[in-house]
Write a structure and sequence with these properties.
Layout (H helix, E strand, L loop, with lengths): L1 E2 L2 E2 L9 H6 L6 E3 L16 E2 L5 E5 L6 E2 L5 E5 L16 H11 L7 E5 L5 H11 L5 E5 L7 H11 L8 E5 L1 H4 L2 H10 L10 E4 L2 E6 L2 E5 L1 H8 L3
Parallel strand pairs: 3-5, 4-6, 5-7, 7-8, 8-9, 9-10, 10-11
Antiparallel strand pairs: 1-2, 11-12, 12-13
Helix pairs in contact: 2-3, 3-4
């Protein structure tokens, strides 16, 4: 686990992650790489006030334990979510995590959201994001398993992507789900329905496109990365 580039190494058992963060209210960047920290930082603990926080990288469930106001970038790992016994309102519940994330953001602050390994909760997550943080400017979704068929994935994107009112940059990293490069490229160029209509630039797996006079044209991937703000 790293915090703003420094490793947290408590010298005494009582020096918990929560107390460590409470002593650093001015943190602007927080990177938590170990989901086991929830054993140290129980879900019933008060939310830690980090009101200067701008960048957050962590397992998804950690979000419910942090209070921020102007978050600009979040990269959440959903690989261990959600818990089998999670219920609505529980910090392990997809909806509760997204609502907690919303409380950290502001509609007038451009928000970049990168989602890692969300396969098990993908439909619920996309639906909740479109309801609660529709003003997301940049969205990166990475999936690598076969929890959902290609047709199911297209259906979910068709239903929910148009509900993101502020979405300008989209990267769908689904290469192992969609299959071949040609299949992925074809999906992006044609688009299921008019899913990509509001986007300025999009990327799916291997290639990027920019809309010019209503027509999608190939666009350099490195320029997409720089423009979208994803890292």
């Amino acid at each position: 686990m790293f915090i703003a580039g420094n490793r947290w190494t408590p010298k005494e058992r009582e020096d918990s992650l929560a107390s460590f963060l409470l002593r650093r209210p001015g943190l602007k960047s927080l990177d938590i790489q170990d989901s086991r920290l929830f054993d140290i930082w129980p879900p019933t603990s008060p939310r830690i006030p980090l009101f200067q926080l701008q960048r957050l990288l962590c397992p998804a469930r950690i979000v419910s334990g942090i209070a921020a106001r102007r978050l600009e970038f979040a990269r959440l790992d959903w690989s261990n979510e959600e818990e089998p016994n999670a219920v609505a309102g529980d910090c392990r519940c997809t909806q509760a995590i997204v609502v907690a994330l919303k409380s950290m953001t502001q509609p007038y602050v451009p928000f970049i959201y990168a989602i890692e390994d969300c396969d098990p909760v993908f439909p619920e997550l996309l639906a909740s994001m479109s309801r609660n943080i529709a003003y997301t400017k940049t969205l990166h979704i990475y999936m690598d398993s076969n929890h959902h068929s290609r047709n199911e994935i297209i259906s979910h994107f068709t239903n929910y992507l148009p509900r993101f009112t502020g979405l300008l940059f989209l990267w769908l990293d689904l290469r192992l789900v969609l299959g071949t490069k040609d299949t992925a490229d074809q999906l992006t160029v044609q688009g299921p329905g008019d899913v990509f209509s509001a986007l300025a630039v999009c990327r799916l797996c291997f290639s990027a496109w920019r809309k010019v006079s209503g027509t999608w044209e190939k666009y350099p991937v490195d320029e997409f990365m720089a423009l979208s703000g994803i890292d």
